[in-house]
Amino acid sequence: MAGIATRIANIRGLAKTVEKIVDRRPYPQARPGGSHPPWVPDPDRYMPAATRTRWPVNNTTNAWTFTTGLNYQCSKLFFGSPDYPTNTFLIPFVGFGLTEGGNAPQELQSPTADFFIDKAKFIHPITGIKYPITFSSLAAATITAGTGIVYGEVTLPSNLPAWTVYGVETYYHGTVGQTYVANYRIQRHRGEKYWAAGDLASVEALADADAPSTAAMDPDSLYNTVGNATNSQKMCYGPALILAKGWDGRPAPLVLADSLLERQEIAASADARGNMGVGRRWLDQRDSVWGSYIPVVMGVPGSKSAQELTTNAFKRWDLIDAIKTTFNGGKDIWTCVLDWSGRNDTNATVASTWANAKTALPGTRVRNRYGAGTHIVGVTMWPTVSSSSDSGRTVAGYSYSTTQWTSVLAAANALLLASSAYNKTIDVFPAFMSDTDPTKPPAAETFPLGNVIGHPGNQDGVTTWDTIKLPNSIPLGARIMFEYQVGSWASRTLIGKTDNGDGTADYKVQEVFATVVLNENAALLGHAYTASDFIHPALHHVLRTVSRIPQSEKLKLYP
Fold it and tell me: Do residues 403 and 354 make contact, with C-beta atoms less than 8 angstroms apart?
């Protein structure tokens, strides 16, 4: 009996040992129940390892310029890591800038001179330790205007845990008067900062103290606004991409995109991992069956399919291919192509012209570059509203041109759903539209939020005010609409929040209120659009659309 007991104990011990080994495996395999196809790990392959990365741009109207006393700068940015452990990071920084709008994504917005990275640091999310990022073993690097690419590298002493949010600080400077490119608008609620001073030591002191952002670089008056360099939240410089080793084999889409993938960056509505808009949120959703995917997004707001991977739009592609050759042993940093572009290729009368502009990019130029076997998934296009009789309050108030829905767009979407340019297609159009009228998107009435509770400050009819008391369930970054006087509605964007501990919160709004007394208990709605042009969906519309695109559509990303 003693021998049997000993053997049982040994078996139990072996089982526990095996269990521990399995628990340590950093690479999840196919889940039971016929979910996704098996993931084949390749832990030595650099793959996308950061949400929120964005290509640098500049502005054709008023360029970003280094000014006196502010020409040494530091950006502190936070990125979401993949849902698997990572350890060795490759972080490209570039000296070219893309155009937003117009000829986007052409890379025509170069700085007027070289600028310099003084140092960069990787911030560990758990310990807070800052690890130096080096460039060919050096702390500093020169960013050559128009053509420069430098690769930052850092290896952590142990694996960064899965699904964390880590930071990168980039210290850089240029000559007073020269222009520079930049990629990021600071997301204050996520702890991001933007400092500037006249010398490196002063900027380092601000960063070491984690001081508030330098007011001139991130003023309240411009926070959460998108426009040009004089009337929008300023942008700071940082990594163009962040890649890491440790890949567990899940899909990594290379995304052809415009602003309707991730929306123009209006900072306060970013989620905890920095994601904006429908596409990035949907891909990054931590679904229990399908998992989250971090993409390589190639476009910027204003991008046209017809202008991608053609004249003046090759530098990003050359960069990712150089990483494939130099760092990845001939393996791409992506596994499939997801075409979420085409909305800016509008043709008002001929659906085939519109559809062909979209499908020629993946079907011809991408396949010519990467081979006929490239797995490409197409996504249908969304409409925009021509006008609204009630500022977007009701679905019935929307108007369309025939281009937007009744003929041309519908026909263009039908063509791309049948196109041989794609191995698979995802029809996201229904997810974007309202329940009451499937030919129109949702309006503010779709998102009843209760009532305005009050205004924390003085309502004397003379003093302007920029705060409002609401139920604390309203998400930061939302655009709201409320009946401030009977029959009169106003819209505001929520950019700050102070919880009162009683189910209410005092919200700071980006747009200062006029000298008006608030209607008591005003009806409160969530606005569906960010602005009166009805192009970019606001937060409530974004979240609704994400929830209506099944996560099972991710199956189509597998060859």
Answer: no
User: In terms of C-beta density within 10 A (0-12 exposed, 13-18 middle, 19 or more buried), how is residue 285 classed?
Assistant: middle
| C-alpha to C-alpha distances, 175 to 108, 172, 217, 412, nearest whole angstrom | 21, 11, 17, 49
- In this prediction, residue 179 has a pLDDT band, given cuts at 50, 70 and 90, of very high
d(CA 184, CA 53): 8
Residue partners of 494: CB distance under 8 A and separation at least 6: 268, 470, 474, 475, 476, 477, 478, 479, 480, 507, 508, 509
In tens, the pLDDT along 102-111 reads: 999 999 999 9
Q: Give the pLDDT band of residue 228 (cuts 50, 70, 90).
A: confident
How long, in residues, is the chain?
559
CA dihedral (107, 112, 118, 124) in degrees, to 10, reads -30
Nearest to 544 by CA among 452, 417, 435, 381: 435
H-run or E-run covering 321: helix 315-326
Closest CA to 332 of 283, 373, 300, 365: 373
Instruction: Please give the Cα distance from 446 to 530 (Å, whole number).
Output: 15
Q: Please tell me whether residue 503 adopts helix, strand or coil conformation.
A: coil
CA torsion angle 212 213 216 222 (round to 10) = -110
Interatomic CA distance for residues 529 and 538, integer angstroms: 4
Query: Which pair of structure tokens corresponds to residue 393?
Result: 């309050």
Q: Are 451 and 473 in contact (CB under 8 A)?
A: no
- The average pLDDT across 478-488 equals 93
CB-based burial label for 221 (10 Å; 0-12, 13-18, 19+) = exposed
**Which residues lie below 8 Å from residue 380, measured CB to CB, with a gap of 6+?**
413, 416, 417, 425, 426, 427, 428, 429
pLDDT at 328: 98
- Predicted model pTM: 0.92
28, HSE (Cβ side, Cα atoms, 13 Å): 18
